[in-house]
Structure to design on (128 residues):
């Protein structure tokens, strides 16, 4: 067991988070890993391994989003379509090591995260 206080804090944060907060953490993680991949691809000497590893992390998060869609609601199909599109773009970005494609993906993820935060805030205020 790791006694690092930061790691313990992070673990507790995850274990005590609501489903909405976990979703937000996933969005934040996907954005973070996407930004790391972009930076690795924009280096003068591209860091292919770092770019690849972080793009794969973003893909895994999006696949998790797809797995947790609630198909009882028709909007799930819309979200799935967006996730499939993002996965296709991530594959293209990874194959070409194209930071512009990654910028597009991260931009979509930021928009989705911001919308999620807005929904969470409205829910806290009882507006949803």
């Amino acid at each position: 067991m790791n006694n690092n206080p930061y790691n313990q804090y992070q673990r507790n944060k995850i274990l005590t988070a609501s489903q909405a907060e976990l979703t937000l953490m996933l969005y934040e993680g996907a954005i973070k890993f996407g930004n790391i991949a972009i930076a690795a691809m924009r280096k003068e000497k591209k860091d292919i391994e770092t770019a690849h590893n972080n793009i794969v992390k973003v893909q895994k998060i999006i696949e998790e989003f797809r797995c947790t869609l609630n198909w009882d609601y028709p909007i799930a199909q819309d979200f799935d379509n967006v996730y499939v599109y993002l996965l296709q773009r991530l594959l293209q970005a990874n194959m070409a090591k194209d930071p512009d494609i990654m910028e597009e993906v991260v931009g979509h993820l930021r928009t989705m995260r911001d919308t999620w935060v807005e929904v969470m805030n409205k829910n806290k205020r009882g507006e949803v």
About this structure: The chain has five helices and no strands. The chain has one domain: 19-117.
